Amino acid sequence: MKGNWIDISVPLRTGMVHWPTDSPIDIERTVDLERGDRYSLSRITMGSHSGTHMDAPRHFVRGGRGIDEMPLTIASGRARVIEITDPESVKPAELVPYHIRRGERILLKTRNSAYAWKTDQFVEDFVYLTSEAADFVAERGVALLGVDYLSVGSPQHGTYVHQRLLGAGVWLLEGLDLSRVAPGRGELVCLPLRISGGDGSPARAIWRPL
Q1: Whole domain around residue 199: which residue ranges?
Q2: Residue 31 included in any domain
Q3: Statement: the pTM of the whole predicted model exceeds 0.85
């Protein structure tokens, strides 16, 4: 039996955590029925990699494809959630037993999901992919890799990790909340906004266990 759909994206709201060098998130109700206006309308200011979002190759690869060029099948379909127990980083040794295959969609559940989204302050010690783990994933031809904080790589080594994965054709889904998701197989549905030539985009992601 299939389970119920679970929303694994984080709600966007004013003042929520963002990558330190990105624009803060600000959602302002500029026209409001509650103030006597004829309708409600909001202005949203944020970076393209805010909250739950997808990275296009163009984010780190010169001449890479934009988010509007993402194949529709990349982020929707069968996927696997793999639980990472290492409290510091994702290393190849913990991925080897899962026999990851070419074309798979892989979501990594770490300790980030349980605590990192509970604060509006940037969590500096979030669990990230090491350079070696990025090589491992790229070499296996994964179609999509999802992680449960704002970046797949650490602030110190994130450039290499992004370039290695995006350069190998691995689309990245970052900023997931997998706290209510058990490890195993399921169905993923996720679509970013169709931003022309975009380096990335906020996205809504949902999961249903199989």
Answers
A1: 6-11+48-209
A2: no
A3: yes
